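Notes from hallway chat w/ T.B., transcribed later so I don't forget. T.B. wanted the structure written out for a chain they're using in a teaching module, and asked if we could keep both sequence and structure tokens in one place. Agreed to drop them here.
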Amino acid sequence: MIFYGWGRKSVPLTNAGTALCSHCGDARPFQIFLNYTYMHLYWIFGAVLRRKYIVACSTCSHGFVLEKKQAKNAVPANSANPVPFMQRWGLAVFAAGIALAIWLK
């Protein structure tokens, strides 16, 4: 029996400063988030399917999507990829393990 599925996560990356929120109508603090969708096999081996960088108002959560180039400039290097290793590269590790087992046989 094969267990597979997918999930979505949102990770706060950094503060984006204060700006005028079009929804609130007032100056509010904004934060940059990474929203990503991933698939998994047995809840261990995963692969990221889609990434979106979003700037959102801290009060009402309304905001806009950043382009990847803009996000790279706005996000510090140490928090640029907060996706856990096995959610990011787990499916490749699984495939390499199967290939290695076949090669050693």
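Follow-up for T.B.: The chain has a mean pLDDT of 87. Might be a good example for the class.
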